Amino acid sequence: MIGQLDFAALWPHWPELLAGLWITIQLTLVATIGGVGLGILGAALRSGRPSLLSRLWGLYVEVIRNTPFVVQLFFIVFGLPNMGLKLTAGEAALLAMLINLGAYSTEIIRAGIQVTPKGQWEAGRVLGLSRTQTFIRIVLPPSLQRIYPALVSQCIIVMLGSSVVSQVSYEELTFAANLIQSRTFLSFEVYLVTTLIYLALSVAMRQLLLAAGRKWFGGARG
């Protein structure tokens, strides 16, 4: 069995894999920035006084956290057009990843905010800062530092989940692997190489984000 493996036959298809990898990296980068931004906004809303908006955000979080990512993606791709909102495969993939990470990061960041001593809020008032200024300047930085490794892990999970968008014919890494396999029938070789690429991407992403965390916070560790 091992002697029949033919990794050399994959060489002509490397441009397709690299093109798919580049799309995966782009998706991940935009989804990470946007999803964490949504998470910060949602955590701020859910950590404040109860309001209609905070309750609606809580409903969004519960819906996303309790449904499969593939169902969320299919709803955006096939459900929204029935409501008059038509998106390309790339736009739908990015929106699905943003919404998914936004929900999970909301709860992760909120957990960090909830353990913030009340004295920090009071210190902001003493300094004459508004509640928003206190949140951004005093409360948010240490809260992010506490939950940063968990947030990094969630971002990596979303990156790995991007493989699902191949189901809507978006040409990322898994789509490229499936296409190459259908042409060459080298299933073991193609998916082993793809697995190693995802593994390398995950490790590199974790190390880069944790290094950035050490620079930003001076103590985020994984």
TrEMBL record:
GO biological process, one term: amino acid transport
Entry's localization field: Cell inner membrane; Cell membrane
Key words, A-Z: Amino-acid transport, Cell inner membrane, Cell membrane, Membrane, Transmembrane, Transmembrane helix, Transport
Species this protein is from: [Pantoea] beijingensis
A Pfam family it matches: BPD_transp_1
GO cellular component, one term: ATP-binding cassette (ABC) transporter complex
Protein name in UniProt: Polar amino acid ABC transporter permease
Keyword set includes Coiled coil: no
Keyword Transmembrane included in the entry's annotation: yes
Membrane topology: Multi-pass membrane protein
Source organism phylogeny: Bacteria, Pseudomonadati, Pseudomonadota, Gammaproteobacteria, Enterobacterales
PANTHER family: ABC TRANSPORTER PERMEASE PROTEIN, MEMBRANE COMPONENT OF AMINO ACID ABC TRANSPORTER
One MF annotation (Gene Ontology) recorded for this entry: transmembrane transporter activity
CDD domains cross-referenced by the UniProt entry: TM_PBP2
Membrane-spanning parts: 20-45, 57-80, 92-113, 190-212
Domain ABC transmembrane type-1 per the UniProt entry, residue ranges: 21-209
Family the UniProt entry places it in: Belongs to the binding-protein-dependent transport system permease family. HisMQ subfamily.
